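Annotated sample (chain length 198).
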Amino acid sequence: MWIRGRLTHRIAGYGVAIASVALALVISLWLNAAGVRGPLFIPAILLSAWYGGIGPGLLAAGLSILATDYFFLRPMPSLGPIAVEDAAYLLVFGLTALLVAWLTATQRRTATEMERQASLLDLTHDTVFVRDPDDVITYWNRGAAQLYGWSSEEAIGKSPTIFCKPSSRCRSPISRRRCTGLTAGRASWCIRGAMGRA
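Output written by the structure step:
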């Protein structure tokens, strides 16, 4: 079942590549007739590589290069020899198209891998949360939600200091640095049920 779904997604990726290049070609021909020069294939390549990966992205790049040569470079419509300046344009366009396909597919693969690794963090009972350089929570796992009583929807996008209350002694090793200024640098995390909300 899993293999079948993956194969269907792969085939759909190639379908998206062909359909998006065809749509970009139709729009480019329409704009070219209206006096706007230049094909609009880069968005089609981006979409194909993002949705389907490197294979559909490269297919979209190849189809875009062929369509550019056939429909937009003189002699039109033809795949025959072209002028030197058109060859330079086609070379630059081709290299750009391949680079866009590769970068987009790599970015998508990286994002998918990061999502997979983040889902693994939810399997642990350990408390894990991530803060960005501006001290905003960007990730809050199931263990943090169970320990502190705040769901990930409530915690993500907020500073950890909103979960702190002034206290005579700090009950959490995490909060000592971030809750400075609240009672001489000491604070405790607001754990629902035990202390209530901040």
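Annotation: Residues 175-188, 194-198 have pLDDT under 50 and may be disordered.
Annotation: The CA atoms of residues 29 and 131 lie 48 Å apart.
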